[in-house]
Automatic annotation (TrEMBL), chains A, B:
Residues 27-166 form the UspA domain. SUPFAM superfamilies: Adenine nucleotide alpha hydrolases-like (SSF52402). It comes from the Eukaryota. InterPro entries: At3g01520-like_plant, Rossmann-like_a/b/a_fold, Universal_stress_UspA, UspA. It holds the Pfam family Usp. Gene3D superfamilies: HUPs (3.40.50.620). This is Universal stress protein A-like protein.
C-alpha cells in the first residue's frame, strides 16, 4: 500500500457559506455538516491523504445599505461594504482553515463574488478537484420550487463528481429554509 | 487521531452491474470505474477505515428465451434462466469481492432482482450506508432523454448522500449508450 500512500493527496473541494439565520455567527449549519462529514467519513485518520479546497462565494449584498443612507450613498460607502464583506468572508474561511491546521490536513481557501451555483461550477471546472462536496438543506419538493438547489445545478454542470450532504434532522432550524 | 482510527469503518455502498456490450465479459466499464475511484480517491492506504457493500441488481432478462424455443418454454426453462442469471451475478460480484480481499478491505456483496434504480434506493435506505457510489455513463442531455439515469433517481430517493462517477473519456465505447 506504500505506493498509494505516497500518491498525490485526494483533492476535495468544499463550498462553504455563511449562516442565513439573523444573528447567527459564521458558517452555515450545512457547511459545517459537510465539513464534519468529510473529516469523519472520508479523511478519518488518514490526514496526509487529502487536501481540502474551501471556496466561499459571496453574493453581492442587496441589503448592504440597510444601515446607511441609501439616497446619499457615496463611493466611500461601497468601499465600506466591500471591506466589510471581505472581512466576513475571511472570518468564515478562518474557521475551516484553522480546524484543518489543528488536525494536520492540508488546505487552501479562497473567496469569489457572484451567483453561488455558477461560480462553484466555474471554479470546480477550473481547479479540477477529485470531487466536490456541497452542504445541502435537504429541502422537500415543495420548498425546492421556491428555493432551488445549488447541488442539482452543480451535478449537471460540474466536470467532477459531486456529493451533497444533507443536514441532520437534529440540526434543522425552525424554518427549514434557514441555514 | 487514534480515536478516529478506532471508529467504525465508513460504509460505502456501490451498485455494480454487468457490461451491456455483447461478448464483453463481466463488470461494466462504469462499475469498474466507480470501484477504482473509491479505492484510489477515498480508501487510499487506509484499508481498515472502510467497508464496501456491493449490490448487484439483476433485471429480469427479456431476451432470456433468445437461445431456446420460446413457444414451448417449460417451467424447467425458467429455472435454467434463473440458475444462469444467478451464476452470472455471483461471477460479477466475485470480481469485486476478490479484489477487496486481496488488498484487505472489508466487504459484503448481495444480489437483488428488479428495477435497478428502485431496488438500489430501497436497499440503500434499508442498509443505511454512509454514502452510495454509482457508476455513470456520463451521457449528454440528448442521450439522457432516451436512456434516463439511475443516479438522478437515486439522488432524489435515497436517504444517504449519493455520488455518481462518470466514465473517463478514454473508456467510452463506440456507442456511448453501451457500457
Amino acid at each position: 500500500m506504500a505506493a498509494e500512500e505516497s500518491a498525490a493527496p485526494t483533492r476535495i473541494m468544499v463550498a462553504v457559506n455563511e449562516s442565513t439565520i439573523k444573528g447567527y455567527p459564521h458558517a452555515s449549519i450545512s457547511s459545517r455538516g459537510a465539513f464534519d462529514w468529510i473529516l469523519s467519513k472520508i479523511v478519518r485518520a488518514n490526514t496526509s491523504g487529502f487536501k481540502l479546497l474551501f471556496l466561499h462565494v459571496q453574493v453581492p449584498d442587496e441589503d448592504g445599505f440597510d444601515d446607511m443612507d441609501s439616497i446619499y450613498a457615496s463611493p466611500e460607502d461601497f468601499k465600506t461594504i466591500q471591506r466589510r464583506d471581505k472581512i466576513r468572508g475571511l472570518h468564515l474561511l478562518e474557521h475551516f482553515v484553522n480546524h484543518c491546521h489543528e488536525i494536520g490536513v492540508a488546505c487552501e481557501a479562497w473567496i469569489k463574488i457572484g451567483d453561488p451555483k455558477e461560480v462553484i461550477c466555474h471554479e470546480a471546472n477550473h481547479v479540477q478537484p477529485d470531487f466536490l462536496v456541497l452542504g445541502s438543506r435537504g429541502l422537500g419538493p415543495f420548498q425546492k420550487v421556491f428555493v432551488g438547489t445549488v447541488s442539482e445545478f452543480c451535478v449537471k454542470h460540474s466536470d467532477c463528481p459531486v456529493i451533497a450532504i444533507k443536514r441532520n434532522a437534529s440540526q434543522i432550524p425552525q424554518d427549514p429554509v434557514d441555514d
